[in-house]
Design brief:
Largest sheet: 5 strands, mixed
CATH topology: Ferric Hydroxamate Uptake Protein, Chain A, domain 1
Strand order of the largest sheet: 2-1-9-7-8
Number of strands: 9
Radius of gyration: 20 Å
Protein backbone atom coordinates (compact mmCIF):
# COMPACT_ATOMS: atom_id res chain seq x y z
CA UNK A 1 0.00 0.00 0.00
CA UNK A 2 2.86 2.39 0.81
CA UNK A 3 4.44 1.66 -2.59
CA UNK A 4 1.21 2.60 -4.39
CA UNK A 5 0.97 5.89 -2.47
CA UNK A 6 4.64 6.63 -3.22
CA UNK A 7 4.14 5.93 -6.95
CA UNK A 8 1.03 8.15 -7.04
CA UNK A 9 2.93 10.94 -5.26
CA UNK A 10 5.84 10.71 -7.72
CA UNK A 11 3.48 10.77 -10.72
CA UNK A 12 1.65 13.78 -9.25
CA UNK A 13 4.93 15.67 -8.71
CA UNK A 14 6.08 14.91 -12.27
CA UNK A 15 2.72 16.01 -13.72
CA UNK A 16 2.81 19.23 -11.69
CA UNK A 17 6.37 19.91 -12.86
CA UNK A 18 5.42 19.41 -16.50
CA UNK A 19 2.38 21.65 -16.06
CA UNK A 20 4.48 24.42 -14.51
CA UNK A 21 7.12 24.11 -17.23
CA UNK A 22 4.54 24.38 -20.02
CA UNK A 23 2.80 27.29 -18.31
CA UNK A 24 5.93 29.38 -17.67
CA UNK A 25 7.96 28.31 -20.73
CA UNK A 26 5.55 28.32 -23.67
CA UNK A 27 6.71 26.61 -26.81
CA UNK A 28 8.15 28.94 -29.44
CA UNK A 29 6.01 27.54 -32.20
CA UNK A 30 2.87 29.67 -31.89
CA UNK A 31 1.86 30.75 -35.39
CA UNK A 32 -0.16 33.63 -36.82
CA UNK A 33 0.65 36.24 -34.19
CA UNK A 34 0.07 39.61 -35.80
CA UNK A 35 2.54 42.15 -34.48
CA UNK A 36 2.75 45.67 -35.85
CA UNK A 37 6.14 47.25 -35.60
CA UNK A 38 6.56 50.96 -36.12
CA UNK A 39 10.11 52.13 -36.78
CA UNK A 40 10.33 55.85 -36.05
CA UNK A 41 13.51 57.79 -36.59
CA UNK A 42 12.89 61.18 -35.04
CA UNK A 43 16.32 62.64 -35.87
CA UNK A 44 15.96 61.73 -39.54
CA UNK A 45 12.24 62.43 -39.93
CA UNK A 46 11.51 58.92 -41.22
CA UNK A 47 8.61 56.79 -40.02
CA UNK A 48 7.46 53.51 -41.50
CA UNK A 49 5.08 50.82 -40.19
CA UNK A 50 5.32 47.11 -40.97
CA UNK A 51 2.70 44.44 -40.31
CA UNK A 52 4.43 41.22 -39.27
CA UNK A 53 3.00 37.75 -38.75
CA UNK A 54 5.39 35.64 -36.73
CA UNK A 55 5.53 32.43 -34.72
CA UNK A 56 8.11 33.74 -32.25
CA UNK A 57 7.32 34.50 -28.62
CA UNK A 58 9.49 37.56 -27.88
CA UNK A 59 9.93 40.96 -29.44
CA UNK A 60 13.72 40.60 -29.56
CA UNK A 61 13.61 37.31 -31.43
CA UNK A 62 11.04 38.65 -33.90
CA UNK A 63 13.09 41.81 -34.56
CA UNK A 64 16.20 39.73 -35.31
CA UNK A 65 14.48 36.97 -37.32
CA UNK A 66 12.57 39.45 -39.48
CA UNK A 67 15.74 41.45 -40.15
CA UNK A 68 14.67 44.67 -38.43
CA UNK A 69 17.72 44.81 -36.16
CA UNK A 70 21.27 43.53 -36.15
CA UNK A 71 21.74 40.68 -33.66
CA UNK A 72 24.09 42.24 -31.10
CA UNK A 73 23.98 40.11 -27.98
CA UNK A 74 25.43 41.53 -24.77
CA UNK A 75 25.58 40.10 -21.26
CA UNK A 76 22.18 41.76 -20.73
CA UNK A 77 20.56 40.35 -23.89
CA UNK A 78 19.85 41.91 -27.27
CA UNK A 79 21.54 45.31 -27.63
CA UNK A 80 19.74 47.26 -30.35
CA UNK A 81 22.27 49.49 -32.04
CA UNK A 82 21.48 49.12 -35.76
CA UNK A 83 17.94 49.16 -37.20
CA UNK A 84 17.08 48.33 -40.82
CA UNK A 85 13.48 48.54 -42.07
CA UNK A 86 13.38 51.80 -44.05
CA UNK A 87 17.19 51.96 -44.09
CA UNK A 88 18.74 49.63 -46.66
CA UNK A 89 22.18 49.80 -45.03
CA UNK A 90 20.82 50.15 -41.51
CA UNK A 91 20.69 53.14 -39.16
CA UNK A 92 23.16 52.82 -36.32
CA UNK A 93 22.72 54.89 -33.18
CA UNK A 94 25.76 57.15 -32.75
CA UNK A 95 26.81 56.89 -29.11
CA UNK A 96 29.10 59.92 -29.45
CA UNK A 97 25.91 61.95 -30.11
CA UNK A 98 24.06 60.16 -27.28
CA UNK A 99 21.72 58.42 -29.73
CA UNK A 100 19.93 55.26 -28.61
CA UNK A 101 16.98 53.10 -29.61
CA UNK A 102 13.91 53.16 -27.37
CA UNK A 103 11.41 50.29 -27.38
CA UNK A 104 7.81 51.37 -26.92
CA UNK A 105 4.44 49.68 -26.86
CA UNK A 106 1.33 51.75 -27.53
CA UNK A 107 3.35 54.94 -27.06
CA UNK A 108 4.78 53.94 -23.67
CA UNK A 109 8.47 53.20 -23.14
CA UNK A 110 9.18 49.57 -22.24
CA UNK A 111 11.42 49.19 -19.21
CA UNK A 112 12.79 45.73 -20.01
CA UNK A 113 14.93 44.33 -22.79
CA UNK A 114 13.51 43.13 -26.09
CA UNK A 115 14.38 39.51 -25.23
CA UNK A 116 12.01 39.56 -22.25
CA UNK A 117 9.01 41.20 -23.93
CA UNK A 118 6.33 38.66 -24.84
CA UNK A 119 4.53 39.48 -28.07
CA UNK A 120 0.85 40.30 -27.77
CA UNK A 121 -1.66 39.75 -30.55
CA UNK A 122 -2.43 43.04 -32.31
CA UNK A 123 -0.04 45.12 -30.19
CA UNK A 124 1.87 48.01 -31.69
CA UNK A 125 5.59 48.18 -30.93
CA UNK A 126 7.83 51.10 -31.78
CA UNK A 127 11.58 51.47 -32.20
CA UNK A 128 12.27 55.15 -31.74
CA UNK A 129 15.67 56.78 -32.15
CA UNK A 130 16.26 59.05 -29.17
CA UNK A 131 18.95 61.65 -28.64
CA UNK A 132 20.31 62.42 -25.18
CA UNK A 133 20.76 60.00 -22.34
CA UNK A 134 18.56 62.20 -20.13
CA UNK A 135 15.68 61.52 -22.54
CA UNK A 136 14.10 58.56 -20.75
Amino acid sequence: MKKIIAVIAVVAVIAAGIGLYVHFNPADDVKDREVKVSLTISADGVSETYGVTTGTQTLGKMLVEEGFVKNNQSSYGLYIQTVYGPFKDGRTADESKEEWWSLEQNGEALMTGADTISLEEGAEYDLVLKVGYDNF
